[in-house]
Write a structure and sequence with these properties.
The chain is an alpha+beta fold. The chain has three domains: 91 residues, Tumour Suppressor Smad4, CATH 2.60.200; 72 residues, no CATH class; 138 residues, no CATH class. It has four helices and 27 strands. A six-stranded antiparallel sheet has the order 2-1-11-10-7-8, with no helix packed on it. A five-stranded mixed sheet has the order 4-3-5-6-9, with no helix packed on it. A five-stranded mixed sheet has the order 22-21-20-26-27. The longest helix has 16 residues. The protein is elongated. It starts with a strand and ends in a 7-residue tail after the last strand. InterPro entries: FHA_dom (IPR000253), SMAD_FHA_dom_sf (IPR008984).
Length: 322
């Protein structure tokens, strides 16, 4: 995250994608009380992978001593910006990193958790919180029993303290990894008794080996439901959906033990946690399990199920190198 520092007070401000500096306390993100500073003096903003300043003031702005008035200048690291004559109006750009969303501790406001990938937070004994960026470009937090979608400016109780979420995504510059996800195949390999379920994700010539895990069985059940719907020629957009109640009943029978919705959530939580450690693309598949009210499904379109090398069924990307 880019930050700007007041040269007199030492105050450090995290730059959002758009930041207004001026004398109007209601409209300005950063308030400067000096009388020679205009109400909305200037805006610092992120565009095309660079930071810029646009002056709107009566008296102009100095950028490294250069007078800027009703015009735009590209900013570089360590540049000094002076909005007025007083020393309190002098700021220095500390760095020029791209903006990112973050969590600010309300207990210790100087504590910032920058959200630039996926994160795991402790949440008491034997519990964890996964924080990840979903394919619909929303930051979400998940435990084994709960998933929440962060909203800008709202506070959340995480890891024993209150945090405020600041949405600061440079949407126009967001990298589109959709082609990576769309060209991937999920390959399930089962033992004869289905006690062992291996899983690989193949993206062109890159193979992400997730090994054998207990939670892969849940994905297998969901993939089979999607395959069944396809073979039955059900409506495409409805492929794979199954009620939580039915899935719990089916898995209880398959596993020869009683399970509940919490068990399902725990398996999903463990799967997403596993994805975080799979480089380079694991985090792109955090939404491969999709939910809606009372229902769940395997959301990826392309997969293959092999049981002792026998092909049980497949829907594959034609161009993928298997």
């Amino acid at each position: 995250m880019a930050t700007i520092k007041n040269k007199l007070s030492g105050q450090i401000v995290i730059l959002n994608t758009q930041n207004t500096f001026g004398r109007n306390q209601q409209n300005s993100i950063t308030y400067i009380p000096d009388m020679d500073v205009s109400q909305s003096h200037a805006v610092i903003f992120w565009q095309n992978e660079d930071w810029y300043i646009q002056d709107y003031s009566r008296n102009g702005t100095l950028v490294n001593g250069e007078y800027v008035h009703h015009s735009t200048r590209k900013l570089t690291e360590h540049v000094t910006i002076q909005f007025g004559k007083g020393k309190l109006a002098q700021w220095q750009l500390i760095d020029v990193k791209e903006p990112s969303s973050y969590l600010r501790s309300l207990t210790s406001p100087e504590t910032i958790l920058e959200l630039n990938s996926c994160h795991i937070l402790p949440n008491g004994k034997d519990a964890e919180i996964l924080i990840y960026f979903s394919k619909d470009k929303k930051w979400k937090a998940e435990t084994a029993s709960l998933t929440i979608e962060f909203e800008h400016g709202k506070s959340y109780h995480l890891n024993g303290e209150e945090w405020q979420f600041i949405d600061n995504e440079p949407l126009e510059d967001t990298i589109d990894n959709g082609n990576v996800v769309d060209s991937a195949n999920f390959l399930f390999s089962l033992s004869e008794d289905e006690e062992h379920v291996g899983l690989k994700v193949v993206v062109d010539a890159i193979e992400l080996d997730l090994g054998e895990r207990v939670h892969h069985y849940l994905l297998l059940m969901l993939a089979r439901k999607r395959l069944c719907d396809m073979n039955n020629e059900d409506i495409f957009n409805d492929h794979g959906w199954i009620s939580i109640e039915d899935l719990v009943d089916q898995m209880s029978k398959e596993l020869y033990k009683e399970i509940d919705a919490y068990y399902l959530n725990l398996q999903i939580h463990r799967f997403r946690k596993q994805l975080l450690g799979i480089q380079p693309y694991g985090s792109l598949f955090m939404d491969v399990i999709e939910r809606r009210r009372g229902e769940i499904r395997f959301a990826h379109h392309f997969f293959q199920i092999l049981k002792e090398e026998k092909n049980e069924g497949e829907i594959l990307v034609v161009s993928s190198q298997l």
